[in-house]
Amino acid sequence: MKMTTMKTRIKLFLSAMLLSVFAFTISCDKIEEPYVKVIESIDTAACPIPEFPAATAAVKRVLLEDYTGHTCVNCPSAAILAHNLKVANGDKLILLAVHAGFFAKPTAGGDFTYDFRSEAGTAWDDFFKVGMVGNPNGMVNRIGYPQSTHIKSPPTWASAVSSALAGEPLLDLQMINEYDATERKLCTHIKTRFITSIDKNLKLIVVIAESGIIKPQKNNDPNSGVTPVIFDYSHSHVLRTAITTTWGSTIATAGTTNPESIVKSYKHILKDEYVPENCSVIAFVYDDETKEVLQAVEVDVIQ
Amino acid sequence: MKKKTLLSVSVLFLLLCTTATVAQNFLEGGRVSGNFQLDAQIYKADSAIGAGEVDEKMLMNAFANLLYSNGNFNAGLRFETYLNPIQGYDPRYKGSGVPYWFGSWRNEQFEITVGNFYEQFGSGMILRSYEERNLGYDNAFKGAKVRFSPADGVILKGMIGTQRFFWEQGPGIVRGLDGEFALNDIFDKEGNCKTRVILGGSFVSKYQQTEELYAGPDTLLILPANVASYALRANVTRGKFALDGEYAGKMNDPSFMNNFIYKNGHSLLLQASFSTKGLGIIASAKRTDNMSYKSRRTESGSFLDINYLPALTRQHAYSLSAMYPYATQPNGEMALQGQVNYKIKRGSLIGGKYGTDIAVNYSRITSIKKETAEGESKIGKPGTAGYKSPFLAFGDELYFQDFNIEIQRKFTNSFKALISYLYQDYNVLILEGYEEPMVNAHIVIADATYRFDNKQALKMEYQQLITKQDEGDWLQVLVEYTFAPKWYFTLADQYNYGNSDKNKRFHYPTVSAGYTNGSNRLMMSYGKQREGIICVGGVCRNVPASNGLTLTLTSTF
User: Cβ distance A282 to A91 under 8 Å?
Assistant: First the structure.
């Protein structure tokens, strides 16, 4: 009897060990060398690189990211403020409305079921913590990170934009877009021209923005529209998707000499819900260490 | 119609009665307990010491725990509010809510917990969740755990959950199994064997969806979605001797913390102790190699840790001895620690009437030896195996060293004193991340308490830190008067008298008082606090300089 109990215990012990070993073997993805894969390079046959026009004097352009959401009641007035700044600064100011965070969440039912969010926008918002501070808030060229002064409230946008525009451009961006309506294929080519040598890790992010999206928006400012909901609100400069990855492609590496210029080309098939006539491509180059945007450019999908 | 109404009323009445009875039974014999703590700080800018302007003027952290117990059933919750988080705490805590709640019940063999929970397997090297309020650290799991005792001496645990990330949950799912077998309870119920042996093993796996992460301009990392880790441990005791050991391993886990390398991780912790009346000896050793294990691969801060790597250094309580604390280096460290506690007999010539306690402690932590991986020219390059490291080989770089001796003696029934000397080497580059020479510090501490009667006591502290590096020499004096059981008053000053920049030889005076009434305690202090680092168990947070009023209220019921 005693021996039987002992055997039972040993069996129990061994069963537990075997169960654990089994659990271990199914719970791991062992990656063998090589640990990396080379990203598929651009199909130049499908997207031949065009001839860029001769470079003219570089102009500093600034990116204003408006972190917003359709249930954010103060956001329409911030959008008007951004629009007025765009009118005042013209092509020198590029607007991008990033729908991310609590106020951008779609509701299960009712008027706000549409999901404006994008993978890139959510990742940026997670990283820069703009939505956590609250909407509406924004970033002007992402200046101020990581000192936590990168999050700018709408009343400070005008001065931040003026200040950012005052600097001399370190590089120039040119963009050519080609759109094939049959395949909804977009080929976008971005040429980065280094005006001065920059010893930094630089990355290029390319995104699609769309305006004229008519969807409900909460509002509490009668000067910005009807309250409490503007049902036919026209959402402008909405970040739709990133053509590059969320944090972009490397175009310069610290410690290496910059070439005179570099051209990056991307192929992208537009989703059916995007209206190509209302879409533009925005590209910007930033310093990977400080995240500061050094130059930006925006060109319509259909030129 | 009337019949229907009558029927509905009857059913409702029955339901209410049943619910009321169930509720009454449920509540009968139940016990509710809890505690509350509020920390508030009112700030005043002081540019000289680097205390900046605080827009809110006042910041506050508070929490309350409520626990309900009834027989085998427990339930509880913790309400937290940070309006806004006091300085030094991560601003992402801003807000109020209930981040922690749970229900648990147990019977003869099972204990089941759902909701939020804390758990530790072995020494925690592959799984430990805990809360440390001083650090603003909380990596509680949210999910379910089961504890199963199928037989005497056998404890099996299983859990699954995501981890707390401020007011959200981290993206990774953590699954874990642990088994502990007390061999004497299983095979030697009669207790014939004088040697007691406990064996244990753990397996943990995390899942996080793969994502696009670059190794270079045109190369993407091939990421493992599931990363497993395992640990084996043993505890052997015989009489006055005890031996503990745990080995942990982790499979390929490229992450921000290890610069996205694919090398497997290893950790070994050994501890031997001897204890007899008046004498205790502990010797410990630890090797850690690439063992950061988080439930988000791109996490850079001290959050979402699945595991815990204990620091093999003494945790100091005095301000100046804790000025240069050691933070565990998960990417690699070799640590050794030894401690001897000896009590010189009471009544002896040296020991005095009440005896004298002596504690000598030494710890030394260095890097591990690293060599380039096969086919690579650089150590730790992303998207490679990273490096090779011969097991148990010490590296050349000293991270931290601490020798300390402490002598405590009670001279009379009303007077006791402590003196302590410490020598510390502190590698600023490794532990704080900026280029500064290694700090070599000598620290002296004297602490004396005189008890006037059963209620009144006066405590005096003198601390001095001498170093040529960093901010130079420091002095601290403290006087504390206690009027038991309700009141205490403290005056203290820290003085950076040896700062090489004469304009920065600041005083940091504080005055504080505390009032205790039953289970309530109110503490107030006014003064300046220097910028520094607080570490608990090798996990650290930076505390900015501040100037102002601090108020703490605690209450339990």
Answer: no
